[in-house]
Amino acid sequence: MSSVLANILIGLITSLISGLSVWLWQRAKYVRAGRRQAAFFGISPGQSGLIILTHHHSSPWVTSHYDVYALLEAAALVDQVRGEIAVEAASEFRGSNGNRTELCIGGPDANERSAGHLAYHLPGIRFLPFSSGPDALGIVVGDREFLWVRGEREYAVVAKFTLPGARSPVFLICGQTGNTNHAAVHFLRHHYQELMKTLPSIDRFCLIVRVSLPNVYGHELVELERDVTAEAFAS
C-alpha cells in the first residue's frame, strides 16, 4: 500500500473514531439531561402526567384562551419527558394523584382543587379577591404582598409537594391571571435546570414568579421573584 493511501485510510479511521466519540458524548449528555428532567418532574417515559385544567372564574363550563395555552404548555412539558398526557377538569376530579405527577393550573377562585391544595398544604399563602382597589388579586405570603398591576407586572405561585400516600408530586401553578398561569408553566418547563442547581430541595418548594410587561411580551418575560418555601408551608 502506498504511503498516500495509507494516510487516507488513517485519516478516515481517525474521522470515524472522532465522530463516534462525539456522538457517544452527545448521547450520554442527552440521557443525563433526560434523567435530571424526569427526577425533577417525577415523570418517567411512559408514565402519566395528570393536568388539572382550570375554568373561567365566572363559569365552570368555560376555559379562557390563556388557560388553554397553559394546558398546551403543560402538555408539551409532559411530552418532553416522553410521558403520557391525561387531562381532568378541576370541577370533576377527586382523590389523590397516586403515581401520576399532577400539574394543577389556576388560582383558587377558578380551580377548586387549587383552593384545596393551598388551604391544606400551603397555609402561609393567601389570594386576595378581585376588586377595584389597589390590592386586587394580590398574593399575600407572610408580611409580603405581591400586587397585580395591569399591563406592568403579574405574579404566580409555583409550588411542588407530595400528597399523603401518593408516590408522585403535585406541581401547583396559581397565577393572578390566565396569562400568568401560562407564564408559570413556561417558567417551569424552561428553567427547571436552574432550579435544580439553586433550590435547597427539589422535593418541596414554593416560589413566586414575576411576569413583566405582559401587554408587550405576553407570557415570555417571566423570572423568579422570591423563594417563599418556609413561609408558604408554615402552619
The CATH superfamily of the largest domain turns out to be Chitobiase/beta-hexosaminidase domain 2-like
CATH class of the largest domain: Alpha Beta
Q: Give the averaged pLDDT, no decimals.
A: 86
Radius of gyration: 22 Å
Strand content: 15-25%
Shape by Cα distribution: elongated
How many structural domains can be distinguished in the coordinates? 2
Ranges where pLDDT stays below 50 over 5 or more residues in a row are none
Q: Report the end-to-end length measured between terminal Cα atoms.
A: 81 Å
Largest sheet: 7 strands, mixed
Keywords: Membrane, Transmembrane, Transmembrane helix
Protein name: Secreted protein
Organism: Streptomyces rhizosphaericus
Task: Summarize the helices and strands and which ones pair or pack.
Layout: H1 3-41, E1 48-53, H2 65-80, E2 84-89, E3 101-105, H3 112-121, E4 125-127, E5 139-141, E6 144-146, E7 153-161, E8 170-175, H4 178-198, E9 205-212, H5 214-217, E10 222-227, H6 229-233
Parallel strand pairs: 1-2, 1-3, 3-8
Antiparallel strand pairs: 4-5, 5-6, 7-8, 7-9, 9-10
Helix pairs in contact: 2-4
